[in-house]
Amino acid sequence: MPSETLEEYLEAIYKLSEHGEARPSRLAEAMSVSAPTVTSTLKRLKAGGLITRPGGAVALTPAGRTEALSIIRRHRLAERLLVDVLGMPWEDVHEEACKLEHALSPKVQAALETYLVNPDVCPHGHPIPSAEGDVAEPTGEPLCGFDTGADVEIVRIEEEDERLLSYLASLGMYPGTRVKVCDVAPFQGPLMVEVNGSRYALGRDVAAKIVVGSSKAPSATKKLTRR
Amino acid sequence: MSRVRLGPDDDPAVVVAALREDDPVIALLGNPNVGKSSLFNRLTGIGVETAHYPGTTQVMNLGDTRVGERRAVVIDLPGTYSLSDQAAESAVTRRALVELRPDVAVAVVDATNLARNLYLVVQAIDLGLPMVVALNLVDEAERKGLAIDAAVLEARLGVPVLPCVAVTGEGVDAVVHAALATADASVCPMPPTYDAPFEALLKPVVTAAAELPERPGDLSPRAVAMLLFEGAPDLLGISGAMAHVAGAAAEARTASQEAYAEPPQVTLARERHALAGTVAEAATGARVGGRRRGPRDLWALTSSPKTGVPLLVFVMAALFGFLFVVGDFLATGFSRLWATFASPVISSAIHAVAGTGQVAEVLRWGFDAGIEASLAIGLPYILTFYVLLAILEDSGYLNSLSFLADRVMHHLGMHGRGLLPLVAAAGCNVPAMLAVRDLPTKRERLIGSTLVALVPCSARTAVILGAVGHYIGWQPALGVFSVVFAVGIGTGLGMNKLFPGHTGGLVMEMFAFRRPRIGGILKKAWAQFKEFLFVATPIVVVGSLVLGALYETGWLWKLTGPLEPVVVGWLGLPAIAGLTLVLGTLRKELALQLLVTMAVVAMGSAASDLTTFMTPTNLFVYALVNAIAVPCISTITVLVRQQGWARAVGIVAFTIGVALLVGGIFARLLPALGWA
What we know:
The complex is a heterodimer of chains A (227) and B (676).
Chain A: H1 4-18, H2 24-31, H3 35-47, E1 51-52, E2 59-60, H4 62-85, H5 93-100, H6 106-115, E3 141-142, E4 151-157, H7 162-170, E5 178-184, E6 191-195, E7 198-202, H8 204-209, E8 210-213
Antiparallel strand pairs in A: 1-2, 3-8, 4-5, 4-8, 5-6, 6-7
Chain B: H1 12-20, E1 25-30, H2 36-43, E2 49-51, E3 60-67, E4 70-76, H3 88-100, E5 104-110, H4 114-126, E6 131-136, H5 138-143, E7 146-148, H6 150-157, E8 161-163, H7 172-185, H8 196-210, H9 221-230, H10 233-236, H11 243-260, H12 264-283, E9 284-286, H13 299-303, H14 305-354, H15 358-395, H16 397-411, H17 419-425, H18 429-435, H19 442-454, H20 458-469, H21 474-498, E10 507-510, H22 518-552, H23 555-558, H24 560-570, H25 575-583, H26 590-603, H27 616-628, H28 633-672
């Protein structure tokens, strides 16, 4: 059983690999620690057979993936508990769940799941992995990956950013809203999108948090390759 | 308005109380760029007060208006998309509506984008304030091929709706009359009704709020319930008596979360948008005759990178060129006129009062040269810049600029909009420094101010061209510019790395193009220019008096001693050149003029050719130090006002430090490279 720190790393690596390659620099950024700290922790994870380092990147081994999904499952279950049962505000539970997740034994997880009637997703709309380590494929891709002409629909707003979520909601951008990319500024600049007849410039950092599905998009939609 | 003296830091509630004198208070509410300020400017005269809540940068303008016999106080609230607390402007606007209790709120809405605009209206109606809707930009809507039925809107919203065109004044009187009638009657609008299941969730909270013996701010039970449901407890100051209402709201939030599987405020936003959309759709029809072509069609050209980037470069070059050429032309003309007409009058007035002695000469420095310095920057550069800025702003082009330049400016720690002051600074630092105020965060304003101070303005450029270009050649002059440019870029990159925080996420509405109106532009430019004129001129005069006293009493020459180690020892310049660098603080081009004058005084007429006592390296270093060190006194004045004393002193000290460092390096480097 890995320590709490190692669990946090596995969780971060899993989330990073969902959106591309997990690199130590991005991991350091995500965990808010220095690069040397990341390097030494990665050594420990590698020694434990939880990760491999193909070409300097970080990849989870099957064992590592199981551990990562387990911690994500506990985190999201904890969030549900805090919101559904304790009635805590939606915006506060991410931090709290980070502390709680490490204390949930498989027994408690099973009890929680029964009590919460097998929830599929966390309060933020992310899928909860099953006890067996199965997880629904995350749908959608960040808006920032789309190019001029794309016509997509918002699936969710990433990263538990409640303020951004509410602000975008007040502008009429919430899950289910159709977004058209009108222009992309040069040098990986902001995207200009059209929503309900209004146009907005969205910084790349903001667009990265808006996850969209292109189910209704025309097949001509081009996708930019990531930098 | 002059009856009450108010500081810019006074509590808005105090300001409103002082201004109202029992007259009704009208608050203007609306999305950004819907013509709210145009309406405000049209209603109010020149005397406008500003107020803001401590700790916020969101400014509210206050003025008064007369309608026949009656007077009313008008508050221009910050432009906002909603009345929630996710953004500074929306939190301030909501707070002002609840705390200042205007007698009537006039919601200004953009007829070309009704659905999005009505969201705010619906939210304001939920607050239960007496309200009137000013349906603005009906002319633009027609151009777009839309006809809005005000009567349908009125029936659906339950508040008076008056079409108008704020920039031309069409229909504005009717808006004010309706607002005053609503204020007199004090009719609160019927709250909107959302979908039945959602209303059922809200009901217990409203019931609980209705049972309160006393509601904060005299709000309606529904308003209290909605605010609590949205999660705005701090605004209401939850007392013990309100605990059960807050509890009911928390229960309703949980129930909403369960029923809709998303945060309650998102569900509420959905309900409001749905309602706003339905109402807008019902009221909007196609205009007979269809769409009229107009400036809107320029859209695609200005923000699409292929055409937008060349256009951006062209606009920036034109802005620079206009300030540089036209500004310079006007400044020269002004100085000539001043020397012919104003200067003799002021001089004789001074001589009449103070005789012809030293005191009179010092006074001439302050009241002749000082006022001239302020006006010679103010009229040709600042007024010109403000007119250009107002055109860019009112037409909507600033948005395209911010959009296209955003990524590049991020490296310097600013948003795209920060490009504008930097380009303007090449004409004159002062208006650029004033334009820095529009940048969104404190961090961006600090970086912006510092970089602006490092951009060589036309006066400093004149010194570079006059000292280096004239005596040595254009290539070294270009070299000076390159060094200054590198220093600026380096400072921006460095500050972006060093200072805590980062440039925040960008969510900016891209407004449609509008035809700028000359009247509105001039009024806006004048309002901003006035501020510079009355704030900066006295300080420039005082500064000039001090410099004049130093010069006339000869104490300036005594500075030669203390300056010598730096000027002669480190920069390798003649001592006299150091003195003129100090005097250049009054006006940067003055440095070179005084250098020639003082050299002639000290060394005889042959010294009017600078090369007789300065080497090419000397001239290069001199122009370089003059370009980087300390902006002129007018710029410093604006800088202090913008950033406060501590930061202004820091920035000025930084420029001196960098100038000396770079100057010293080149004083050694150039001879080492084989330069004379």
